[in-house]
Automatic annotation (TrEMBL):
A GO cellular component entry from the record: cytoplasm
SUPFAM superfamilies found in the cross-reference section: Ubiquitin-like
Pfam families in the record: TUG-UBL1
Name this protein carries in UniProt: TUG ubiquitin-like domain-containing protein
Organism annotation: Sinocyclocheilus rhinocerous
Biological processes per GO annotation: glucose homeostasis; intracellular protein transport
Domain TUG ubiquitin-like: 12-74
Length: 148
């Protein structure tokens, strides 16, 4: 394993420990989903806790301020993570440096967001054509294209 590789140990509600290898770009939600899949838990009903702090699952490993070989605990969430949708303000920075902004529901897809702005619409977009890509915190996010 590379020198920059890390691992985390997660204590599950059934008393078992699961070690998960993580990289700097691994989202904490991915760690939770991996453990839940292995032990048969629903990730929407659980969260991760480090010492006494419930972690923000949207963070990547590098931004979570966790030490290598951290010991996390899987806890039952007091409220489901798939809560009510709220309005969020999104800004897209285009390749030319211009910025597009708008308010969206948190439940809208990336494709909905991209097609909202006339500047990002491509009339000849098809399955064999170009696919738009968003870069979020150094991760490439590609929208699922429903072209039926």
């Amino acid at each position: 394993m590379a020198a920059s590789g890390s691992a985390v140990s997660v204590l599950t509600p059934n008393g078992r420990r699961q070690t998960v290898k993580v990289s700097a770009n691994t989202p904490l939600l991915q760690v939770l989903e991996d453990v839940c899949k292995k032990h048969g838990f629903n990730p929407e009903e659980h969260g991760l806790k480090f010492q006494r702090i419930v972690l923000d699952l949207s963070l990547q490993w590098r931004f979570a301020s966790l030490p290598n070989n951290a010991k996390l605990e899987m806890v039952v969430c007091s409220r489901p993570q798939t809560g009510a949708e709220s309005a969020v303000r999104i800004a897209l920075q285009m390749e030319d440096g211009s910025r597009l902004q708008g308010s969206f529901s948190s439940g809208q897809s990336l494709w909905d967001l991209l097609t909202h702005f006339p500047q990002t619409r491509t009339p000849d977009l098809d399955a064999s054509g170009p696919t738009p890509v968003c870069v979020y915190m150094r991760d490439e996010v590609r929208p699922a294209l429903d072209l039926y």
